[in-house]
């Protein structure tokens, strides 16, 4: 009998007792493995695509495109902000114009209402004449109604500067009688008659010439030597020593003038050369007084020229050394010269 037969029999029994392989489970595992492999390949391809995109996005052209897009966005935001500000400014201006127009309308309405009240008041005064007593009673009643300290409008009492009319006049007007006229009080003011009489010259034939100019209080004799040279064309026709008098009247009225000028364009009392004492303060505050010549035009018909410039009427203009004066349309030139001091 063979010894190895029991072992061989046992192995045969084990083969017979082994469970058959499940083909369905094997197929599912293979499917799962294939699916995992496919998923891994897909993820690998997606990673490679992402890597390629990143590599492509890092090129200079893509950076330039991104920068341009950002610039466009910034410009768009700035434009929108500017539009919003413009809209706000427009709304603010519209509101301001509306408020200004409303104020103007209110002021016009108040002005028209005030004019209507004034017109009604004027018509009432013209339509009905009241006596002073009635007017005073109505004013007192109106003040009692509206001008009391505890009234609603809060206005103060009306203060009058002048005295009230007398009761006798009020009663006389209410009765239809004319009030007595007040006695005229004496007036001790200056009438100007004495001044005109003292500033006039009586001629031999009895006619009176009124002077248009009288010297001011500051008239003084000059300490310096001043001369007036009269030129006609290029020749000296006359020389006048001005230091001997305080005032020199120029004109055609021979009875009153000091310097006669017979040109028809010169007025009878044309202009005056006046020496006046004036004071000025220096930089230390000390007063320094001097006597200087001045020229004044007496509202002449054709005017006075000083250094080829017209002199204003009735105003003193200071004269200086070598000033040239012309009267009216005369061609004569009057040159003022100050003599040098010794």
Automatic annotation (TrEMBL):
Residues 1-191 are annotated as: Disordered. Residues 248-311 form the FHA domain. InterPro entries: Cell_Proc_Reg/RNA_Proc, FHA_dom, SMAD_FHA_dom_sf. It comes from the Eukaryota. Residues 1-41, 70-124 have a biased composition (Basic and acidic residues). Residues 42-69 have a biased composition (Basic residues). PANTHER family: NUCLEAR INHIBITOR OF PROTEIN PHOSPHATASE-1. This is FHA domain-containing protein. It comes from Remersonia thermophila.
């Amino acid at each position: 009998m063979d010894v190895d037969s029991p072992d061989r029999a046992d192995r045969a029994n084990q083969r017979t007792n082994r469970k058959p392989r499940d083909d369905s489970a094997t197929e599912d595992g293979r499917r799962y493995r294939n699916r995992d492999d496919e998923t891994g390949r897909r993820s690998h391809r997606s990673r490679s695509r992402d890597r390629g995109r990143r590599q492509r996005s890092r090129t200079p052209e893509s950076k330039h495109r991104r920068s341009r897009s950002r610039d466009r966005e910034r410009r768009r935001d700035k434009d929108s902000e500017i539009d919003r500000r413009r809209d706000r400014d427009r709304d603010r201006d519209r509101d301001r114009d509306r408020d200004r127009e409303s104020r103007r309308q209110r002021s016009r309405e108040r002005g028209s209402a005030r004019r209507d009240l004034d017109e009604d008041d004027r018509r009432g005064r013209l339509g009905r004449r009241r006596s002073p007593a009635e007017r005073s009673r109505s004013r007192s009643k109106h003040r009692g109604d509206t001008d009391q300290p505890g009234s609603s409008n809060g206005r103060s009492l009306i203060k009058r500067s002048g005295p009230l009319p007398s009761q006798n006049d009020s009663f006389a007007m209410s009765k239809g009688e004319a009030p007595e006229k007040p006695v005229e009080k004496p007036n001790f003011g200056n009438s100007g008659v004495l001044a005109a009489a003292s500033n006039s010259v009586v001629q031999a034939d009895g006619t009176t010439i009124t002077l248009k100019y009288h010297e001011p209080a500051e008239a003084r004799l000059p300490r310096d030597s001043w001369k007036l040279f009269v030129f006609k064309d290029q020749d000296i026709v006359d020389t006048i020593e001005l230091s001997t008098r305080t005032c020199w009247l120029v004109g055609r009225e021979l009875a009153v003038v000091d310097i006669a000028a017979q040109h028809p364009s010169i007025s009878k009392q044309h202009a005056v050369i006046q020496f006046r004492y004036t004071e000025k303060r220096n930089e230390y505050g000390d007063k320094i007084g001097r006597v200087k010549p001045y020229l004044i035009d007496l509202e002449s018909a054709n005017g006075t020229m000083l250094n080829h410039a017209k002199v204003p009427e009735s105003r003193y203009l200071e004269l200086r050394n070598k000033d040239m004066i012309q009267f009216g349309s005369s061609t004569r030139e009057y040159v003022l010269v100050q003599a040098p001091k010794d």
